[in-house]
Fold each of these.
Amino acid sequence: MHDHSHKTIDIIGAKLIFSVIFNLIITLSEIIGGFLSGSLALISDALHNLSDTGALLVSFFARKISKKPKNQRYTYGYKRAEIIAAIINTTILLAISATLLIEGTKKIINPSEIKTSLMLVIAYIGLFGNGLTAILLFSHSKENLNLKSSFLHILSDLFSSIAIIITGHLIARYNIWILDPIITFLIATYIIIESIKILKESLQIVMQATPEHIDINFLKEELESLPFVKDVHHIHSWTLDGHDVFLECHVKVESFDYDKCLKTIYEKLKALGFKHNTIQLELKECTDNCIA
């Protein structure tokens, strides 16, 4: 089991590094092709790909850091390194999207001719590269917010490439130059919407908010349904990385058999999906000196 875990980690790391190399190649191709063809959409996609390269590197190093063992200073370990990476990645995406909206506005005011044949060749190269990278990371995209944010970078690039190809063919056929900045607006809007979702979830984790799938009132009712429990209070639930959920609470009981009480409570919590629990048992009312 131990060897299999490290093999999985190495495979994911290798996929991330491969994705970095491939994105650098796509970025250089699109920057050169964008300037030569005069396509803002292609240049915007190149800048997006460049941010993806940085995002994938951040994800790679954050993943390595998150696997470091806990110590006396970081008693919870380094799992939140990946949450920090997700915040960095989405913040960069939002900044780039704002830049694209500004440049797209300038392009609408002053439209220019585009060499669609070169634009399409580069766009198809980007489509192939982004599609391959998306396939590599898809199976890991639900593991945590770090990998999810990296996959979002690649997925948005994939959509960008498809949109640019469609736009290129329409421009080549009908000479509607304004489609180039319009598609830039659509790409930027999509990135902003998806980035805000991940950023919001990441910030909630950093702020130690109760995970959305946990109902504190329901949890309180379930624990108070145990025959020896009189009251449950000071309930706190949080997650380190969007995956591992922690719980602590005070439980007022009517029994001196603390070991039996704790065993029953832990079994109840395990059935409810809680694995990392800290329970403080009390016989009297909790005083103001109790840590809330």
Amino acid sequence: MNKLRVTLEQWRTLQAVIDFGGYAQAAEKLHRSQSSLSYTIAKLQQQLGMPLLRIEGRKAVLTPAGEVLLRRSRQLVDSAAELEAAAHNLDQGWEPEIRVVVDAAFPSVYLMSALKAFIPLSRGTQIQLNEVVLSGADEALLAGDADLVICGHVPQGFLGDQLIEVEFIAVAHCDHHLHQPGRELTYEDLRREIQIVIRDSGVQLNRDVGWLGSSHRWTVTSIDKATDALVGGLGFGWVPHHHAKRYIESGELRPLPLREGQRRKVHLFMVFGQSERAGPATHKLAAILRENCNETNIKTMREE
């Protein structure tokens, strides 16, 4: 590896001369002598083998090469500052990455709002986000593959706080013949129809939740795909109300008039993968998620 001839301090000095309008102004801001700055810039130009500044009157002006290198040097100095900050954060126990696993039923708008609020507080912590269905969250926890999980079931050996309640609603396309009888529907009415079921993303702990046991079952991999299938008139199924709401309001989907079970509520919990090892960044993100969901719950109760 070639040894670097130019130091970050030399690039910072060049930036100061340009940003503050000259050697005298930069020397005052940096609390250094003007001769010291002049020597640093002269040495920089000598090491690079090209002029970066020229004097016009009493003002130092960048040469074309100086403009290019100054722009690149800003990126270099900023990256070095980020590297030092990252090292400091690691020394303070601030995690470089948070592995977040979220059940697909959790409203995306709340998740994205929380992540946006976390960005200015993140200190460079990266987020690895994985969406799962049903037991996929359990398996992530049990395998140690998650730092923070939002799930509908807290597996044995873990503690979780209830975060939000999600309502699922049974719907079908407005033209589906399940809407034609003009009466309350029973299990017998449903079992002869195609049910759209969302596949459990877990492998070892796979669960069939909401499936009526009919052989007329079409399985999809996500809530979005299930909603698309229902809007396309392929069958009936239960999806989160927040996914179906706009289609119900537009008339494309209609709630099924079930005698029982038209709506069901699912509690989603927030669980730390390893609560005793969760760092400050994980706790900060958890607090933001909790606050967002609390505000949403309060707003919902007021509207009701």
